[in-house]
Specification:
By secondary structure, the protein is of the alpha+beta class. It has one domain. Helix content is about 50%, strand content about 25%. A three-stranded antiparallel beta sheet has the order 1-2-3. The protein is rod-shaped, with a radius of gyration of 27 Å. The protein starts with a helix and ends in a 6-residue tail after the last strand.
């Protein structure tokens, strides 16, 4: 009889309910925040790659002092990349459209309990008057 009263009293007791609700919600909220941060870093990597190749292609077509060769252009592109450290690989060349610079890399998107390798690439071409 006394056990029943104790169980009923315990069932009506509401102290600590907020802590239990918080314990249920907190892991989902943390995963959501970490997913947003990881996705923002992915967007930063993509933006940085596009900016670097566009600047390097323009530099190679216009500025022979700074970007006079493919090696100098690749070095310039690497210096212009600002983003997460994904170890991008830059290549410079010539095409029908003018001076081209391409970049490839891979970003690891961390989502809760899994990681996804996202391949990234960007290319830019800037017209040049005299291709050598």
């Amino acid at each position: 009889m006394r056990l029943r009263r104790t169980i009923r009293a315990w069932g009506r007791h509401e102290g600590g309910a907020a802590a239990v609700e918080y314990a249920f919600i907190l892991p989902m909220f943390v995963m959501l925040v970490m997913g947003v941060i990881s996705t923002a870093q992915l967007a930063s990597a993509i933006n940085g790659m596009h900016f670097a190749v566009a600047e390097a292609a323009r530099c190679w077509a216009v500025n022979a002092t700074t970007c006079g060769s493919t090696t100098a252009t690749v070095t310039f592109a690497q210096s212009r990349y600002v983003g997460p450290d994904i170890h991008p690989t830059f290549l410079a060349g010539s095409a029908d459209c003018g001076r081209t610079v391409t970049v490839t890399g891979s970003y690891t998107l961390e989502l809760a309990i899994t990681e996804i390798a996202v391949p990234l690439s960007a290319a830019a071409c800037y017209p040049a008057a005299n291709l050598t």
